[in-house]
Amino acid sequence: MATPTPSALADDEVQRYARHLVMPEVGRDGQERIKAARVLCVGAGGLGSPLLLYLGAAGVGTLGIVDFDVVDVSNLQRQVIHGTPDVGRKKLASAAERLRAVNPHVQVRPFETRLTSQNAMEILQDFDVVVDGTDNFATRYLVNDACVLSGKPNVHGAVFRFEGQASVFSAPGGPCYRCLYPEPPPPGTVPSCAEGGVLGILPGLVGLIQATETLKLLLGKGDPLVGRLLLVDALAMRFREVKIRKDPACPVCGERPTVTGLIDYEAFCGTRGGPLEARGMGAEMTVEELAARRQAGDEPLLLDVREPHELRICSIGGLHIPMNEVPARLGELDPSRELVVYCRSGARSGQVVAFLRQRGFARAVNLTGGILAWADRVDQKVAKY
Amino acid sequence: MLLGRAEGGERRVTLALRCRNADPAPRRRYALDPRELLAALKLARGRGEEVVGFYHSHPGGPARPSAADLAEAHWPGCAYVVTAVEGGCAGETRSFVLAGSEEERRFAEEPVERGLPVEAGGAGLTPGGAPAAG
After folding, report:
1. Is B132 inside any structural domain?
2. Closest residue of chain A to B72, computed from CA coordinates
3. Are A328 and B132 inside 8 Å of each other by CB?
């Protein structure tokens, strides 16, 4: 990272940052560096909210924010930069206003757009550090690759339910996100926070770890989370570390990189396009067909991919492997057998079928409409939830 | 890696995951591939369990942790299980819990009890970590 040229502090800033100025690790020089720094935050959501508030309060001179979303009432449980009156407003407008109230010395540079392969390099070029507050794999790989290609550190954070992780990728000599995860997970195998939920405080915890790492990078102090992935388990309240090495075979930061420019990340992550058959769509069985097969004593093997707590509500039988365990438990399934995968509505099971078909399970089909359809059209005694 | 439950100072193993030895000198040392470690953590989460320990063998060596094992052990409360291997056959198996602070780590031996058969599997290299909160 190019160290920003220090930017002199005005008198009111000296008062404002008094608790920093007395710290030997920060001091006037450090605070001037923070003021001169330009930090880009991709996403003003769960992670972006707390880290932007604290980086703004700490006096980061320029805060870039990339977001195109609108504040929804379901965001407020964790996205603390936005308030109840902001529901329906652009997140950018809401975040910028709040940041100005927190610290008028901060210059906010809003980018009201989705970060894309076309605009990422141009947006990143004016910043010293990039903080990843994204909510999807395609943008996360895009942020990573753009940081590696432009030689900027990528302060990573991710959360799910009670767990989170943080690291600093793409720092000089350190690994990048792709050294750890060369390939994205098959589409649909990792539930999003919208599907799986997230404890409201968790992005606060992880976002502030990202903010801490960002300030350390700007100051050049301490041991940054380079080559270390910090795992946060809020339920056990346990922090653990996993050592990660730079992968010489990494496709983007390795010795012979094959990714030398930004690619189509939606296609890379399988989140767009592709023939229906290849994605498993179209490989469906209706509940009527399953009922008829069952009655005829010719029932195919059923696979229930719901979460264990859903099983307690109702079940229509078969083998149970929760969706996120399927990739690791493929060995329990016979690829040559007919397999009817189901969940509550057919959405998750459809994704599992797409995954299974990619892995050679040519006879895997999705139960269209899932348990809800079964309860409506075959057996009304089955509970709907 | 060993998955299971930890309660009242005891660890009950339900699943043993075989992992690749990522160390460049695999006959003398062992190192976990972080991707496998994350996959195992994710699997444990899905099962409502946790990673309760790590197991490895000492070909031609004793069933106790080496100095390198201690230096590389960073997960307090986890069992580090070592099996001696002599002439290609598994010998004694002992288990050591990592105790103490990060600065002063030590292994405390614990009794090993063989209960119900433990499930075995391989850790798939599926990315852990999930999308951040949107």
Report:
1. no
2. A243
3. no
